[in-house]
Design brief:
The protein has three domains: 2-189, Rossmann fold; 215-275, SH3 type barrels (Roll), CATH 2.30.30; 278-356, Translation factors (Elongation Factor Tu (Ef-tu), domain 3). Helix content is 24%, strand content 29%. It is built from seven helices and 17 strands. It has helices at 11-22, 51-64, 74-90, 97-116, 158-161, 173-182, 204-212, and strands at 2-6, 26-33, 68-72, 121-123, 129-133, 136-140, 164-165, 217-220, 226-230, 257-262, 267-271, 278-288, 297-302, 310-317, 320-329, 337-342, 345-356. The strands form four sheets. It has a six-stranded antiparallel beta barrel with strand order 12-15-14-13-16-17. Helix 1 (11-22) packs parallel to helix 2 (51-64), helix 1 (11-22) packs across helix 6 and helix 3 (74-90) runs antiparallel to helix 4. The radius of gyration is 22 Å and the shape is globular. The relative contact order is 0.13.
Length: 365
């Protein structure tokens, strides 16, 4: 097969490209330029897509003896990931930019361009597995549970999976680093990058403030009384505990969490932990990695990249899905994604529209 290996400049994508070459494929390395003004050096372990990263990817490609190109997708990344990120927070929701990047950039823009140029597939350094099943290729969890990235790949369709390779799914991260060192790759000890790549200092609230400006409003307790003020409701997310700027001793001393965000009124409501538990999720924009579940289905539901999977009853209705959890979980925010599993197989995902309480269940964990 003719395969585009997406090479970020990190150790994972380097080993993934090498393994595709070892498997006998015709491999071309491609680095995605996603920043309109890429920095020369990484500002921290969080950042990526710098000129340094592009150089690291090129050095690995040279060692492998494969062609290497840089594809400029900065405008597409700005529109589909960064602008979407701002718009979602401005609407009071909490998006996951990694899922959006996989959906819109790596397995839409990149894959579409690769197929248009006559390539057969795209390979990435994600930790997940593709298994041939009775209905076609299936997406499964990685062997390394600590590095499993199947959650952020839950936006892929069956058609996209048919043209995807994840060569690291059967390997642990320490083994990948050992392999990179054995191959002589300079990136063998390079630190991992972390969310969110376009906010390298990790100050999401500050980054949003520069784009949305200060929007002062009130912080309310669960009874509606004003207990504080904020500079922008977009700087908060459901379940947040730190950074509220409140004096708990002026209340009852109990910890407070964000339990509601009203963007129309520009208010943030806080409450005690018991108010956070939900057991019903309604999702929109459902995307299925294979056959759509029919009727009530018993599946596992996960709402964070490394969160716990919770047993649930799932009903799909077109692009919408209703997920009733066996027990309550905390900190579920509109805009996040719920990814559904059948064992280790990823069934699909949906963007959370609402979360609440369907009935009495076990207390939230």
């Amino acid at each position: 097969m003719r395969v585009v290996a997406a090479m970020s400049g990190g150790v994972d994508s380097a080993v993934a490209a090498a393994r595709m070459l070892d498997a006998g494929h015709e491999v071309v390395g491609v680095h995605l330029a996603l920043s309109r003004s890429a920095a020369t050096l990484r500002e921290s372990a969080r950042g990526c897509c710098t000129l340094e990263d592009a150089g690291d990817a090129r050095r690995v490609a040279d060692m492998l003896g494969i062609p290497f190109y840089v594809w400029d997708l900065a405008d597409r990344f700005q529109r589909d990931v960064m602008d979407d990120f701002v718009a979602e927070y401005a609407a009071g929701r909490t998006p996951n930019p990694c899922l959006r990047c996989n959906e819109k950039i790596k397995f839409s823009a990149l894959l579409d361009k690769a197929l248009a140029l006559g390539f057969d597939a795209v390979a990435t350094g994600h930790y997940a597995q593709i298994v041939d099943g009775p209905a076609g290729r299936e997406l499964h969890r990685a062997v390394d549970a600590a590095k499993d990235q199947s959650y952020v790949l839950g936006v892929l369709t069956a058609e996209q999976l048919a043209h995807a390779f994840f060569p690291l799914g059967d390997t642990t991260k320490p083994m990948v680093r050992e392999e990179a060192a054995a191959r002589g790759f300079y990136v063998a000890k390079k630190p991992d990058s972390y969310d969110i790549c376009f906010i390298p200092d990790g100050d999401t609230r500050g980054w949003l403030t520069k784009r949305l400006g200060e929007q002062p409003g009130e912080i309310l307790d669960a009874d509606g009384s004003v207990v504080g003020h904020h500079e922008g409701a977009y700087g908060f997310t459901i379940g947040q505990r730190k950074g509220l700027g409140l004096d708990r001793s002026a209340m009852d001393g109990q910890a407070r969490y964000v339990v509601g965000i009203d963007r129309a009124a520009n208010t943030v409501t806080i409450g005690t932990a018991d108010l956070l538990g939900v057991d019903e999720i309604v999702g929109m924009r459902a995307l299925w990695c294979g056959p759509v579940p029919t009727g009530p289905s018993r599946l596992g539901a996960q709402v964070r990249a490394h969160g716990e999977e919770v047993p649930a009853t799932v009903e799909a209705d077109g692009a919408r899905v209703r997920v009733v959890l066996d027990r309550r979980i905390r900190g579920v925010a509109p805009g996040q994604s719920v990814v559904l599993y059948d064992g280790t197989r990823v069934v699909g995902s949906a963007t959370i529209e609402t979360a609440g309480r369907a009935r009495h269940t076990e207390p939230a964990s």
